[in-house]
Amino acid sequence: MAYLDWKDELNTGIRVIDGQHRRIVDYINQLHDIAQGNGGTGTVEVLTALVDYTLSHFAFEESLLEEAGYPQHASHVRTHDAFRNRIFDFRERARQGENVAEPLLELLKDWLFEHIAHEDARYVPLVSAQMGRLEQRDQGGWMRSQLKRWFP
Amino acid sequence: MPEIQWTNDLDTGIPVIDKQHRRLVEYINQLDHARTHHSRDEVNSVLDQLVDYTLSHFAFEESLMEDAGYPFLNAHKRVHALFVKRIADYQQRFKVGEDIGAELQVSLTTWLLNHIKNDDDDYADDVKRALGGATEETGGWVARSIKKFFG
To answer: Most A CBs within 10 Å: which of B72, B76, B104, as the mutation test of the A interface?
Structure first.
């Protein structure tokens, strides 16, 4: 069993976002395996990858929220900013040679699922509708396939 | 970091895009080679080419997504912009003499592979539908766009 198991109720239904969330979970598990396995060698590499990936994911999501006119956009970004600062701090400490695995994993484990289940879940109806409208405007087929998917 | 081996899960199924992605992987592998052979000049030159090619590739890809009406175009573009900034920073640090080799390699490799497998995969169906089977050889539009973005 992995350190962190993905739960289906965390799916937003926005495929590209779910893929990004799952990738972050993979990195957290990788970080945990390293911490367990050999006392933390390679932590900096995985942490770098995790930080890079998280930043990309946040950029993607923030752009989406902005485009959809999500009213809580600014506060969502602030939540991301606070998290960004915390992981930057961990990365810096790891670079200095400190073994940060345990507190870092705790932060990641608590923060990610909590954030997805509560804060991300709130933007889903609006963003899904907005993206649906865009796709429908361009192709017409998207809504049909979604309807079929949700109301078979 | 070991050389990147191309695996099938990196294929988007859009030949013109896959070809460009493979080229990006080649540049990253070349960079690794230059770095492990301690050739600063070569690293410098490969890095310049990589940045240049990446910009053309992103512009080409964004134009395909736009034409296909891919709804996450702007979010995808934002991720591209962040990546461009990231490599420009590395390039800058390298040019002032910092030793960024290993970190750059990890960063480029993980970013590209993750991005192709998830974010690019997400637009693939829309773009395939829009291209309707047109390729570099058969589709005038594809060939024209390549010329426009890659010169």
So the answer is: B72
Q: Residue B5, by phi and psi: left (phi above 0), alpha (psi -120 to 50) or beta?
A: beta
Instruction: Enter the pTM of the model.
Output: 0.87
Which of A52, A55, A135 lies closest to B110 in CB terms? Answer: A52
Measured in degrees and rounded to the nearest 5, phi and psi for residue B20 equal -70, -40
ipTM: 0.86
Return d(Cα B81, Cα B87) in angstroms, integer: 10
pLDDT tens for A52-83 read 999 999 999 999 999 999 999 999 999 999 99
CB spacing of A135 vs B119 below 8 angstroms: no
For chain A, domains (ranges, CATH) are 14-150 (1.20.120.50)
Chain A, chain B: beta-carbon pairs less than 8 Å apart = 73
Average pLDDT over residues B63-69: 92
